[in-house]
């Protein structure tokens, strides 16, 4: 179920697309729609030269008949929204790094209000609105409102509570946030110190709390606190609390609220008002506790419903799933910039003094860049699959089938961790791949890194989440002998006995081209690491103590399992029909690059568990090198396929037309420091210094 599902049903009578008021300026020729992106295979060796789109013969266009039937009709919406945002001056973002925090934040408010106005005026559908938010490309309070506040009420509220609160939230008559983290507790949700004490005398709760949430905008919050009734504790629950007056926005009595201050980087996540909140005996009505999991009666009695209490964590599962798809977007954006720039940039060259070499042609550049390109595609496919898994578990929960919840938790936690860590590292690698110019703000990469990197921490610290996966894996291993057959992403463990014995069949480099060989190597590695951890754990009398002691190894095992999921979902995708000449072949190459690069990076795991021999490892590396040469001719097409506008990329280095150097020069002059030839401060500081030196010299 998506965040804002149904919000339009409540207040917009009909859904009308943008129609013809947004032009699609692309011309003709053939390309292929790969889940909302194109792969226009180039015939010029991918060496697009500097120049306009028209001059390049427009390799990028899509014909309706090229649309792949099994992809959602996402491309057109995405394309239209990208253009809508790019052509609207209110959504300008090239000045963000120059703004003060106050200006930046006010500008975000302006953009959010303008986006909402456009959504209403154009009667955008939920999908269109969500794409618009994506292309506006600025963290804002609305993310938390739609992404966490609304889903928390939907997931944890009773029917009655949903009926009361959701219409207000859908119309943005109230704005909400998700206030769970405290100053002293984030990962440890059960350790929250905020309490909600039921007072049967007045039918109200009282709170004392300190959250991370929205500091300047939200009128309401879903606050997580430990429920206390009749002197007894009943675990952490969500409570809808009004924070500010709906008339003048002033905090309500007993509430102290504000922003927590500047965060990492300029611009970046500072458009968001992460906040501090203190409750001093704030009282709310009993029915503002979200009661789908547990009900508190008028007398203060707790009545447990039949849904598992883990559903209280359900909003986090939802958001973790969206974060995986977002990882693919952030990564593809960084890779698009680095790939285009690598084709433009030339260094060194032939001894005879001919043109210098495009840096993309250096094998070292390729071995750093192409695995990231492959990862961008891999994360897109695994993100699609995870969306399906999430929808599936949601439907099951509605039918009171809770059986797949542990797997959904493990998959969302593990893949959130894996993809965000890889993406944050990849953005930084892309910056380095762009040499000195990558460090310029106008490359777009520093801001992208700063805005992206907290994804490794929020919605669960990545290590803490991998430990959750490890817990799930150890449980699965411990049940292997009990007749309970592992299913879903752990189904391979049913073949544990075989996988513990198996020998990799690779004899020559091309043998690594068999998906079954790659899959088996990854399965064997994951099973062996999990079983080794389980064996070590069994030596501890106290399992919790053992878990703590072995946690670093457990994290490695969890990573191996999650990497297997990504590899297997990429391979599964390729088993589907993919029309378009050469498209499937390109994706296959990327799939092999993704897998073999992981194998190369984690060689220690594969060798120490005996899954492959040193000779086979060396053959894999040989093969990997040859694959880079196969990607090279289509590298530009493979990033053009993401269909990012120059506005969205926000990068001089990643410009579609490759016109990098003149634009870098132009950008430099826009810096406020260049407003005057002689800088402010010259008279006060520079001149006296120079004069002093002159005097000293004369002496
Ligand atoms: C109109 C316009 C439209 C626009 C649309 C816009 C849409 C925007 C969409 C999305 C944008 C989203 C933007 C997001 C921005 C992010 C901002 C950040 C927010 C936050 O960070 S919120 C705070 C997040 N906090 C955390 O993640 C805390 C991490 N900690 C935990 O999750 C848990 O405490 C824990 C899992 C680490 C440990 O919990 P606990 O101690 O209770 O658990 P255990 O004892 O280990 O396990 C008990 C048991 O429960 C199982 N379990 C744990 N968690 C879950 C879960 N989530 N689901 C299911 N099951 C769970 C666990 O496996 C154990 O099971 P067993 O007993 O072993 O079987
Ligand atoms: C930009 C941003 C936005 C946020 N937005 C929100 C929001 O909207 N609402 C909200 O409620 N919260 C929000 N948060 C808070 C966020 O969810 C928490 O910071 C996050 O869950 C991590 O918790 P923590 O800060 O307590 O980290 P800690 O748990 O203190 O982590 C510190 C270190 O300890 C390690 N560690 C912790 N526990 C263990 C363990 N059991 N075993 C091994 N190592 C461990 C971690 O790996 C990490 O290295 C936001 C945070 C950021 C950065």
From TrEMBL:
<dbReference type="InterPro" id="IPR029320">
    <property type="entry name" value="Acyl-CoA_ox_N"/>
</dbReference>
<keyword id="KW-0443">Lipid metabolism</keyword>
<dbReference type="InterPro" id="IPR009100">
    <property type="entry name" value="AcylCoA_DH/oxidase_NM_dom_sf"/>
</dbReference>
<keyword id="KW-0285">Flavoprotein</keyword>
<dbReference type="Pfam" id="PF01756">
    <property type="entry name" value="ACOX"/>
</dbReference>
<feature type="domain" description="Acyl-coenzyme A oxidase N-terminal">
    <location>
        <begin position="75"/>
        <end position="175"/>
    </location>
</feature>
<dbReference type="GO" id="GO:0005777">
    <property type="term" value="C:peroxisome"/>
</dbReference>
<dbReference type="Pfam" id="PF22924">
    <property type="entry name" value="ACOX_C_alpha1"/>
</dbReference>
<feature type="active site" description="Proton acceptor">
    <location>
        <position position="459"/>
    </location>
</feature>
<keyword id="KW-0276">Fatty acid metabolism</keyword>
<dbReference type="GO" id="GO:0071949">
    <property type="term" value="F:FAD binding"/>
</dbReference>
<feature type="domain" description="Acyl-CoA oxidase C-alpha1">
    <location>
        <begin position="313"/>
        <end position="474"/>
    </location>
</feature>
<keyword id="KW-0274">FAD</keyword>
<feature type="binding site">
    <location>
        <position position="181"/>
    </location>
    <ligand>
        <name>FAD</name>
    </ligand>
</feature>
<dbReference type="InterPro" id="IPR036250">
    <property type="entry name" value="AcylCo_DH-like_C"/>
</dbReference>
<feature type="domain" description="Acyl-CoA oxidase C-terminal">
    <location>
        <begin position="515"/>
        <end position="691"/>
    </location>
</feature>
<dbReference type="InterPro" id="IPR046373">
    <property type="entry name" value="Acyl-CoA_Oxase/DH_mid-dom_sf"/>
</dbReference>
<keyword id="KW-0560">Oxidoreductase</keyword>
<comment type="similarity">
    <text>Belongs to the acyl-CoA oxidase family.</text>
</comment>
<dbReference type="InterPro" id="IPR055060">
    <property type="entry name" value="ACOX_C_alpha1"/>
</dbReference>
<dbReference type="GO" id="GO:0005504">
    <property type="term" value="F:fatty acid binding"/>
</dbReference>
<dbReference type="GO" id="GO:0001676">
    <property type="term" value="P:long-chain fatty acid metabolic process"/>
</dbReference>
<dbReference type="Pfam" id="PF14749">
    <property type="entry name" value="Acyl-CoA_ox_N"/>
</dbReference>
<dbReference type="InterPro" id="IPR037069">
    <property type="entry name" value="AcylCoA_DH/ox_N_sf"/>
</dbReference>
<dbReference type="GO" id="GO:0033540">
    <property type="term" value="P:fatty acid beta-oxidation using acyl-CoA oxidase"/>
</dbReference>
<feature type="binding site">
    <location>
        <position position="212"/>
    </location>
    <ligand>
        <name>FAD</name>
    </ligand>
</feature>
<dbReference type="InterPro" id="IPR002655">
    <property type="entry name" value="Acyl-CoA_oxidase_C"/>
</dbReference>
<dbReference type="InterPro" id="IPR012258">
    <property type="entry name" value="Acyl-CoA_oxidase"/>
</dbReference>
<dbReference type="GO" id="GO:0003997">
    <property type="term" value="F:acyl-CoA oxidase activity"/>
</dbReference>
<keyword id="KW-0576">Peroxisome</keyword>
<protein>
    <recommendedName>
        <fullName>Acyl-coenzyme A oxidase</fullName>
    </recommendedName>
</protein>
<dbReference type="GO" id="GO:0055088">
    <property type="term" value="P:lipid homeostasis"/>
</dbReference>
């Amino acid at each position: 179920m998506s965040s804002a599902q149904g919000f339009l049903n409540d207040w917009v009578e009909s859904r009308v697309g943008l129609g013809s008021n947004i032009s699609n300026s692309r011309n003709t020729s053939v390309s292929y729609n790969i889940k909302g992106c194109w792969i226009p295979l180039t015939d010029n060796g991918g060496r697009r030269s500097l120049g306009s789109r028209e001059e390049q013969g427009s390799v990028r266009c899509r014909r309706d008949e090229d649309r792949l039937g099994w992809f959602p009709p996402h491309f057109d919406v995405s394309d239209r929204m990208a253009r809508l945002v790019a052509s609207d001056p209110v959504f300008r973002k090239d000045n963000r790094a120059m703004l003060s925090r106050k200006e930046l934040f006010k500008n975000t408010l302006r953009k959010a209000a303008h986006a909402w106005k456009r959504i209403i005026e154009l009667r955008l559908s939920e999908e269109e609105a969500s794409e618009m938010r994506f292309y506006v490309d600025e963290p804002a309070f609305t993310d938390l409102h739609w992404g966490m506040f609304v889903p928390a009420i939907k997931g944890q509220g009773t029917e009655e509570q949903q009926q009361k609160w959701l219409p207000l939230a859908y119309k943005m008559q109230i704005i909400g946030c998700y206030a769970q983290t405290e100053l002293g507790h984030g990962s440890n949700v059960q350790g929250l110190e905020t309490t909600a004490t039921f007072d049967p005398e007045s039918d109200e709760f009282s709170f004392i709390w300190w959250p991370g949430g929205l500091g300047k905008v939200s009128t309401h919050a879903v606050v997580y606190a430990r429920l206390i009734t009749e002197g007894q504790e009943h675990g952490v629950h969500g409570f809808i609390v009004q924070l500010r007056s709906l008339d003048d926005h002033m905090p309500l009595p007993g509430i102290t609220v504000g922003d927590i201050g500047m965060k990492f980087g300029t611009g970046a996540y500072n458009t968001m008002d992460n906040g501090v909140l203190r409750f001093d005996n704030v009282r709310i009505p009993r029915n503002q506790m979200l009661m789908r999991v547990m009900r508190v009666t008028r007398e203060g009695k707790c009545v447990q419903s039949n849904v598992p209490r883990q559903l209280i964590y359900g909003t986090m599962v939802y958001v973790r799933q969206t974060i995986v798809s977002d990882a693919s977007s952030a990564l593809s954006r960084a890779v698009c910039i680095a790939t285009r720039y690598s084709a433009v940039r030339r260094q060194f060259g032939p001894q005879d003094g001919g043109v210098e070499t495009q840096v993309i042609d250096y094998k070292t550049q390729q071995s750093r860049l192409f695995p990231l390109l492959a990862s961008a595609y891999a994360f897109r496919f695994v993100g699609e699959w995870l969306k399906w898994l999430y929808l599936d578990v949601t439907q099951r929960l509605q039918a009171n089938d809770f059986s797949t919840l542990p797997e959904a938790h493990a998959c969302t936690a593990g893949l959130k961790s894996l993809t965000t860590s890889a993406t944050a590292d990849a953005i930084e690698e892309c910056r380095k791949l762009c040499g000195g110019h990558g460090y310029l703000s106008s490359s777009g990469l520093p801001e992208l890194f700063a805005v992206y990197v907290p994804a490794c921490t929020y919605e669960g610290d990545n290590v803490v989440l991998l430990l959750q996966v490890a817990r799930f894996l150890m449980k699965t291993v411990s049940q292997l002998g009990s007749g309970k057959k592992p299913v879903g992403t752990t189904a391979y463990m049913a073949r544990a006995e075989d996988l513990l014995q198996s020998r990799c069949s690779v004899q020559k480099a091309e043998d690594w081209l068999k998906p079954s060989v790659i899959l088996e190597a990854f399965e064997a590695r994951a099973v062996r690491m999990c079983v080794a951890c389980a064996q070590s754990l069994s030596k501890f009398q106290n399992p919790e103590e053992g878990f703590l002691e072995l946690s670093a190894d457990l994290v490695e095992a969890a990573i191996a399992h999650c990497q297997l999921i990504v590899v297997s979902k990429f391979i599964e995708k390729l088993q589907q029909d993919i029309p378009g000449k050469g498209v499937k072949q390109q994706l296959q190459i990327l799939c092999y690059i993704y897998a073999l690069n992981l194998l190369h990076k984690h060689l220690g795991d594969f060798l120490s568990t005996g899954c492959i021999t040193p000779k086979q490892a060396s053959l894999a590396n040989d093969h990997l090198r040859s694959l880079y040469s196969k990607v090279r001719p289509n590298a530009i097409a493979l990033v053009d396929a993401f269909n990012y506008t120059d506005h969205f990329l926000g990068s001089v280095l990643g410009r579609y037309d490759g016109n990098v150097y003149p634009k870098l020069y132009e950008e430099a002059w826009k810096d406020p420091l260049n407003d005057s030839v002689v800088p402010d401060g010259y008279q006060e500081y520079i001149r006296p210094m120079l004069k002093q030196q002159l005097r000293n010299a004369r002496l």
